[in-house]
Amino acid sequence: MKSDPMIQKLEVSAFRVPTDAPEADGTFAWDSTTMVLVQAHGGGATGLGFTYAPAACAALTTELLSPAVVGLSALDVGAAAGAMAHAVRNANRPGAVGYAISAVDCALWDLKARLLGLPLHRLLGAVRGEVAVYGSGGFTTYDERELKSQLTGWAHDQRIPRVKIKIGESGGTREARDLVRMRQAREAVGDDVELFVDANGGYSAKQAIRLMSKAEGLDIRWLEEPVSSENLAGLREVRDRVDADVAAGEYGTELSYYQRMCAANALDCVQADVSRCGGISEWLRIAAVAAAHELEVSGHCAPHLSVHVGAATPNFRHLEWFHDHVRIETMFFDGCLDPAGGTLTPTSDAGNGLALRTADMVPYRIA
After folding, report:
1. Mean local confidence (pLDDT), 99-116
2. Can you give the three-state secondary structure of the chain, one letter per residue?
3. Mean pLDDT (whole number) for 181-199
4. Residues whose CB is less than 8 angstroms from the CB of residue 150 and which lie 6 or more positions away in sequence, other chains included
5. What is the pLDDT of residues 243-302, one digit of tens each?
6. What span, in angstroms and rounded, lies between the C-alpha atoms of 320 and 301?
7. By CB neighbour count within 10 A (0-12 exposed, 13-18 middle, 19+ buried), where does 18 fall?
8. How far is CA 240 from CA 155, 178, 233, 243, 367, in A?
C-alpha cells in the first residue's frame, strides 16, 4: 500500500510593510504591518499559511512547531494540530504562540488540499459558493476627505453593501469627533449600505450605551468591541441596551476563550480570526461552540486566508475586507479575489489558490 506523503519541512519568513498613510483605531496606532509566512513542504507540493503578528512568531515556529510536525503525515492535519498544542505547553498557547500555530495549521490544510487536488473549501466541506464581505478601515487618523473616499470606493465603486469605521478615538476621550465621523460615514455611503463601527475596546459600557443613543438616527448595525473583549459583563450590558449587534472575539487563540464568551451571553456575533485562533482546525471547533449557543461567526481580517473556511462554516455571517491586509495580500500573492458586489467566490484551483509573488516580497523581508 502506498504510504502517505510526509510533512518534510516548514519554511518560515517575516515581512514588514509600511502603511500607505498613518493609521490608528480607538486604542492603538501603527505605521507598518508585519506578516509571518509559513510554507509547508511535502509530497512535492507546498502549502501556504500566514499570520499578521510580531516577527518573533517566525522563531517560535522554527524552534517549537517545526520539530513537532515534520515527519507526520501531510494528510493528518488533526494529528499535527495536536502535536503543536502539546509542544507549546510550557510556552503558554494564548497570544503570539497561538498566532504561530495558526499560520502553520493553515499552511498544512492548504498543503493537504493541494496534494489531493481539491480547492480548500471543498476539502473542508463547502456549504456556500460565495462569502459575504464588509469593507473595513475608516481609521481615526483619516480626515473627512480620506474617510469618504475609502467608503465610497467600497460602497459605490465595488458595490459592497456593508462598511466599517473605527471609533473610540484616543481611548474614548473624543466622543464628539466619533459622532461627527459616524455622520460623515452615513452621508458618504447613503441609506442603503449597512454601517458598522469598531471601538477596539475604547469605551466603558455606559459610555458606549450613551454614545449609541446619540447616534440613534444613523442606523448603526454592528458595534464591535465597545469595551474590552475581556470585559464580558460590560459586553453583555451593552448588548442588552443597544440596537446594533454587538461583536467581539478577534483576539482569541484557543477554544476555551470562545466558550467563556459564548456562555456569558455577551455577543450577537462571534468574531474569530483564522490567522490567530489556532488556524482552520481550531476555527471549526470555535464555530461549533458558537452554533451550540445559536450564534453566527464573522471572520476577522486576513480575507484570503479566511474565505475558504468561511465557505465551509454553516453559521458564518461575513468576512472583514480589511484595508491593510487586502493591500498586503494583493502585493504578495497571485490569485487574490474580487469583492465586487459584496461577496468573494473561493477559487476552483487546488488549495487556497494563492501563489507567492516572491520578487515583490523581497524588499519587505525582515526574517
Report:
1. 98
2. CCCCCECCEEEEEEEEEEEEEEEECCCCEEEEEEEEEEEEEECCEEEEEEEECCCHHHHHHHHHHHHHHCCCECCCHHHHHHHHHHHCHHHCCCCHHHHHHHHHHHHHHHHHHHHHCCEHHHHHCCCCCCEEEEEECCCCCCCHHHHHHHHHHHHHHCCCCEEEEECCHHHHCCHHHHHHHHHHHHHHHCCCCEEEEECCCCCCHHHHHHHHHHCHHHCEEEEECCCCCCCHHHHHHHHHHCCCEEEECCCCCCHHHHHHHHHCCCCCEEEECCCCCCHHHHHHHHHHHHHHCCCEEEECCCHHHHHHHHHCCCCEEEEEEEHHHHHHHHHHEECCCCCHHHEECCCCCCECCCEECHHHHHHHECC
3. 98
4. 135, 137, 138, 142, 323
5. 999 999 999 999 999 999 999 999 999 999 999 999 999 999 999 999 999 999 999 999
6. 5
7. exposed
8. 30, 22, 11, 8, 46
List Cα–Cα distances, 54 to 94, 198, 257, in angstroms.
14, 23, 21
C-alpha–C-alpha distance, residues 215 and 237, integer Å: 18
